[in-house]
């Protein structure tokens, strides 16, 4: 720090020595005052005048982060369009079902008729099971939806007593969660040569505990969005054996749909018994695309 006050001016100091005492004092007082003013205004931290302008900078800097913080706090909201939404994912079957045949063969009422609690599902010819596939896609889908801000619940996550839940319970979980959307993930077990995916919509059912009438329109919209985005992201064609090329099917024999009180669809992501489809279903990279396609369909539905 350098000062320019008279006390540091050698010529003035020399003049003070030659001047009479009174004159020296008269010259010294204004100079000292000027030095004090300069010190207080410029040199002293937190001083007045120019020093205050310097001190104001931290205040200005403090305001900027506050504004940035407001923008930052708004950005996650804009980037999380499903904040406040609840999505229930139902991974079809359970990897342990095949060891609990007596339990899963118990009959449950799905409104239109009685049906097995659950089944083992299908598998590829090489033994990659549908249950493993559905749980893997469900995990990937959950991650994608949570990044969008959704609250995601799974009907099971390998944490049950190795089997189930029954199809009736799967519907109950979505209903109890008041899900804004629910989807059951599956893969088909049709003959070789039958290829492609399809989305299953609930039929109009009003029987026993089943009444799908309040969710028909919303479920169809959900199914159409999922069908469109799944095809776009995965590059897969709609089923060549179900749905007449539309990628959509309507059924009244599925308890998970019949008993749902929230918008819900099933998706058969491909045919595990067809070698070409099986090559896709067993690929982790493709399963990520499948999850992405389903996610984009759900996001589109929930954003209206």
Automatic annotation (TrEMBL):
Q: Does the keyword Isomerase apply?
A: no
Q: Which CDD domains match?
A: MurNAc-LAA (cd02696)
Instruction: Tell me its EC number(s), please.
Output: 3.5.1.28
Where, by residue number, does the polypeptide cross the bilayer? 21-39
**InterPro entries recorded for this chain?**
MurNAc-LAA_cat (IPR002508), N-acetylmuramoyl_amidase_3 (IPR050695)
Q: Does the keyword Metal-binding apply?
A: no
Q: What keywords are assigned to this protein?
A: Hydrolase, Membrane, Transmembrane, Transmembrane helix
At the top of the EC hierarchy, this enzyme's class is hydrolase
Q: Which domain of life is it from?
A: Bacteria
Per the database record, which ranges form the MurNAc-LAA domain?
A: 171-299
Which terms in the Gene Ontology molecular function aspect does this entry carry?
N-acetylmuramoyl-L-alanine amidase activity
Protein name, per record: N-acetylmuramoyl-L-alanine amidase
Query: Which organism was this protein described from?
Result: Streptomyces hyaluromycini
